């Protein structure tokens, strides 16, 4: 069983940093997992740092994710929660493992020594709310609609979330704590040594080709697109132009990644399980495009500014999809027919509605139109107004003989950009943009 020191927490160093002077607040963010949600919470930390530049800002996170947050230039301290064997800690683990209980008590004492003024509980679970409570922060913020596991008992101020997407929800919590509204930013997530290590890993690939990352893994089976379809999509992209591919994933997904490498004729490198989280961020930053399902590396690619082709399938892109303008979202037709509010159908068959040709077309379009935002559904391709800017339309975005592109207003010229567009579902060969009415 790993002790707390093995997870990177230096007990002697905690609480020794100089206190925030001039009445600056001492703020604590509690978002323990998972990778995608932790990355989506970084714009909230950016908003707090921009409003309170001299504040002491700390973050409690599960130990395996702590190395990534330590690369961030937004935080003063990263506090990894003691976890056994690199896994998420459960409260009954503290009763079965005396050593872990001792480490957790020491962690709580160090947490209280930092004397936080405000704790932002972004997880909505018992263990995260209890962590915020044990910090002894006088003000503990939680979402008003998060009632799981009695977490609301441990917060004393409940905040209504704004927006559907996780990034918007987390930013609304920061604004409730006093942060000003500002464009979302994730800050720096890599160091030069991470980029050097990635450059060495990529030496076997042709350096002059655009680099496309393939991420076949996911936390649930209904989010996974078949590996053979990734290989077929890579071959289709390769037929349309020169490109090199790198397959990423966790160590248990290395065999799955090798299946793609063996099934495609394109130059491909298997890096699943061979990178740390900061090195993965540096790798995604170096890529021209990332083809992925609804999983943590998708949000990490958005954070480092890489164009994403997201194969969403049975999950709602407006809630858990890639945030921002540099994204191509492929949504299964079954999700369009689903009732509003049903964000997850959990049907693996929906992923099979997405063909390799659709992913290849979206990938080529993403390479040619960066930055741009598109929503690709089974059978039709539609333009979508991105958050925070006006999409760029170029002549090469149209096929020969397709109808002329209509100008699309920016998000500031319309109210609720998704509701301001009336979709026209007509099967055609060309690209059909939504017409404003």
Description:
With 437 residues, this protein is α/β, with parallel strands linked by helices. It is built from 16 helices and 16 strands. α2 runs parallel beside α7, α9 crosses α10 and α9 packs across α15. It is globular.
What does this entry show, briefly?
With 437 residues, the chain is of the alpha/beta class.
Measured on Cα atoms, how large is the radius of gyration?
A: 22 Å
What is the CATH architecture assignment of the largest domain? 3-Layer(aba) Sandwich
Number of strands: 16
CATH class of the largest domain: Alpha Beta
Largest sheet: 8 strands, mixed
Strand arrangement within the widest β-sheet reads 9-8-7-10-11-12-13-14
The portion of residues assigned to helices is 25-40%
Terminal Cα span: 62 Å
Which structural class is indicated by helix and strand composition?
Answer: alpha/beta
User: How many domains, in number, for the residues?
Assistant: 2
The named CATH superfamily of the largest domain: Glycogen Phosphorylase B
- Sum up the overall morphology in one term: globular
As for the CATH topology of the largest domain, it is Rossmann fold
Strand percentage: 15-25%
């Amino acid at each position: 069983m790993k002790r707390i020191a093995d997870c990177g927490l230096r007990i002697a160093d905690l609480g020794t940093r100089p206190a925030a002077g001039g009445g600056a607040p001492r703020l604590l963010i509690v978002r323990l997992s998972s990778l995608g949600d932790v990355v989506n919470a970084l714009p909230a930390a950016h908003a707090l740092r921009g409003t309170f530049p001299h504040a002491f800002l700390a973050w409690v996170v599960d130990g395996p994710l702590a190395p990534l947050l330590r690369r961030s230039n937004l935080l003063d301290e990263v506090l990894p929660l003691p976890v056994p064997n690199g896994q998420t800690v459960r409260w009954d683990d503290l009763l079965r493992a005396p050593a872990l209980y001792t480490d957790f008590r020491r962690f709580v004492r160090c947490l209280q020594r930092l004397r936080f003024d405000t704790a932002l509980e972004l997880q909505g679970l018992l263990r995260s709310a209890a962590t915020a409570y044990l910090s002894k922060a006088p003000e503990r913020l939680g979402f008003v609609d998060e009632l799981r596991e009695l977490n609301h008992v441990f917060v004393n101020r409940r905040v209504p979330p704004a927006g559907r997407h996780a990034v918007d929800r987390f930013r609304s919590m920061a604004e409730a704590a006093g942060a000003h509204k500002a464009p979302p930013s994730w800050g720096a997530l890599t160091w030069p040594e991470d980029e050097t290590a990635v450059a060495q890993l990529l030496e076997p690939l042709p350096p002059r080709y655009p680099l496309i990352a393939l991420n076949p893994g996911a936390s649930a089976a209904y989010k996974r697109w078949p590996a053979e379809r990734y290989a077929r999509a890579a071959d289709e992209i390769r037929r349309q132009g020169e490109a090199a591919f790198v397959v990423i994933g966790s160590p248990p997904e290395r065999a799955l990644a090798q299946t793609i490498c063996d099934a495609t004729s394109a130059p491909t490198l298997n890096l699943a399980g061979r990178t740390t989280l900061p090195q993965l961020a540096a790798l995604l930053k170096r890529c021209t495009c990332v083809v992925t399902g609804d999983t943590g590396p998708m949000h990490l690619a958005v954070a480092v500014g890489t164009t994403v082709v997201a194969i969403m399938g049975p999950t709602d892109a407006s809630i858990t999809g890639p945030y921002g303008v540099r994204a191509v979202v492929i949504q299964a037709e079954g999700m369009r027919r689903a009732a509003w509010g049903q964000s997850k159908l959990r049907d693996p068959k929906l992923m099979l509605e997405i063909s390799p040709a659709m992913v290849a077309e979206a990938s080529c379009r993403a390479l040619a139109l960066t930055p741009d935002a598109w929503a690709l559904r089974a059978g039709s391709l539609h333009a979508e107004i991105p958050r925070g800017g006006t999409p760029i339309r170029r002549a090469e975005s149209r096929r020969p003989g397709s109808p002329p592109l209509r100008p699309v207003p920016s998000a500031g010229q319309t109210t609720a950009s998704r509701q301001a567009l009336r979709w026209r579902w007509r099967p055609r060969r060309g690209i059909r943009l939504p017409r404003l009415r």
